[in-house]
Each structure stands twice: as structure tokens, then as C-alpha cells.
Amino acid sequence: MSSQTNLVALEPGRRERNKQEKRRRILAAAGRLFRRKGFAATTTQEITTAAGVAAGTLYLYARSKEDLLLLVFMDEMQEVIGRAFAGVPHAAPLVDQLMHVFGTLADYHGEDIRLARALIREIAFNEDRERRREILGVRRTINAGVARLMQQAQQRREITSELDPEDAAQVYFSVYFLLLQNWVNDDIDR
Prior knowledge:
It is a single chain. 77% of the residues lie in helices and 0% in strands. It is mainly alpha-helical.
């Protein structure tokens, strides 16, 4: 098989590109409307109109408005996580690196506290197995990055080598998520 044939085989067909474009438009419209009007005040009809798709088309991509909120979050979080770890001050102590990562994540949620509150409710109580697996994938991505930072700190002898980086990353994320819930619910200051 020639290299040109390999490239053609890897490129999605017109139908798949059309599906990806519709999904992108739906998620972009939903994100904009959720931020402008609030999650509760936004209707799926408004989303489909803003995305330029038929009403039924939305349900090919999301099962409900709540499901759409999770899809918007997971789509945006890939960029946020990338930015969080790309901007880590590598010469700084581990605590500053962790504050940078979790601060970047908190900044994302701080852009719209009402939306963050709705999102956290959906994350915590979502019963869809597939969506929960995707949410867990976001958490695993964050935990893997935190574990890498901890391993690097161990190599610098900044923290003990007896600490399991993966376990510690899970603990850090759990504490972060608990604090995030309390913050968006106005129980604590940032």
C-alpha cells in the first residue's frame, strides 16, 4: 500500500466529517447558551436553532440536555487539562506545580459558577454507564499528569520515594473535587 493510500484511508469520509461538524456545532452552541442564559434556562430547541440542525439531530449526539452538558464539559476539559499541564512551572517546587494544575482547573469552573454547579451535580449523580466511564477518563487523565509530576519530584528528591504517585494523585484529585463542590456551592472561599 502506498503512503498516499495510507493517508486517504486515515482521513474520515464526507459523511463522518459532516457528523463531526454537526457535533462540533451542537456542542459550541450548547456551551455558548449555557453560559449566556444558564443551564436551566436554556432549551434544547434553542441549542438546535443556534447549531443550525434539526431538533431530532441533537438526540443522535446527546440523550438529554444534561447529557449535552457533560459532553460540552468533556470536550472543553481536554483543552483545559492540556493547558494546565503545559503551563506547569517545572523549576518550581511540587506544591506550586500542583497549585498551578488545580488552579487552572478551578479557573475553568470559576468562569461560570452556576454552570459549574449544574455540571458537578451531573458528574456526581449521572447514572449512564458510558458517560460515567468517559467522566472517569477525564479524572484518569488528570491523575496521570499529577502522578508524573510527583514522580519527577521523587527524582529530584523533593518528596519521599516511598509515596506511591498514583495513589497520591487520586487523593489530591479527591480533595480538589471536594473543595470544588464546596466552593461552587458557596460553602468556602476559593
